[in-house]
Write a structure and sequence with these properties.
Rossmann fold; alpha/beta; eleven-stranded mixed sheet
Length: 249
């Protein structure tokens, strides 16, 4: 991982980013684009107070930092900057700012970026980001397609996979590409089950392997991502399907 976009919407979001910057730096992050949106209303618009100080905080942590001060739709600018800068990851804060992040539609710009999106929840419990990485999958073959890239990114962390079953499958641990795979029975709904398992295991990061086509995603995929990012106290990494992440390590 070399380049990232941080969507800076408030001082609270900036504080979250400073907490995860050392972990991202350890993964190889060297360059950051700090994207800050001003009001989309016509006329003069002021950036958030203390913006220059937040940029200096990033500059103290990373070799190369640039500020992108934009007006309008944040998702459009994330998409444009990710394409132009060839970034490896987009970091978004869950601190409320009036923006509805569209993660549900498989055709949404955020889901079609083809690079990982790290979502930091408002009630972030903290801790080392990459110590215990729980990967939620729908089937073993979806894990096989991404496991090499995930292991490359998180070589110093422990990777573990979980699949939620609505049937009577055996929950005995298996292995897939060197990663432990556990099948757990659904309790209530898929998102709740995953969050409960993440808490029991002590996960520091919950990773979702995003599907990019509606046929592969299926009806059961629609209500999972949004409940996860709304309810999780752990960062959620939405990993692109079919190994399309821009890896620079």
């Amino acid at each position: 991982m070399t380049r990232a976009i941080f969507v800076l919407t408030s001082a609270e979001a900036g504080e979250q980013y400073l907490r995860v910057l050392p972990d991202l730096r350890a993964l190889g992050l060297a360059e950051a684009t700090v994207l800050h949106l001003v009001s989309a209303q016509p006329g003069p618009a002021e950036p958030m107070p203390g913006l220059a100080n937040w940029v200096r905080h990033f500059e103290a942590a990373l070799p190369k930092v640039e500020l992108a001060l934009k007006r309008g739709d944040p998702v459009k600018w994330i998409y444009e900057l990710a394409r132009v800068r060839a970034v490896d990851i987009v970091v978004i804060s869950g601190v409320p700012n009036g923006t509805e992040w569209d993660f549900e539609r498989v055709s949404s710009p955020l889901r079609s970026l083809g690079i990982p999106i790290l979502y930091i929840p408002e009630e972030y419990i903290g801790g080392a980001l990459c110590d215990q990485i729980l990967v939620a999958i729908k089937a073993p073959d979806t894990l096989e397609g991404a496991v090499c890239e995930l292991q490359e990114w998180f070589s110093s962390g422990r990777l573990r996979a979980v699949r939620v079953s609505t049937g009577s499958e055996d929950g005995a641990p298996e292995e897939c590409g060197g990663v432990d795979l556990e099948i757990v029975k659904e309790k209530g709904d898929v998102a709740t089950t995953l969050l409960q398992h993440a808490e029991e295991w002590g996960a520091t990061l919950l990773t979702i392997l995003a599907q990019e086509d509606s046929e592969a995603a299926g009806e059961s995929a629609v209500p999972v991502v949004k409940p996860l990012i709304q309810e999780s106290a752990r960062p959620v990494l939405i990993w692109p399907a079919q190994g399309k992440a821009h890896l620079s390590r």
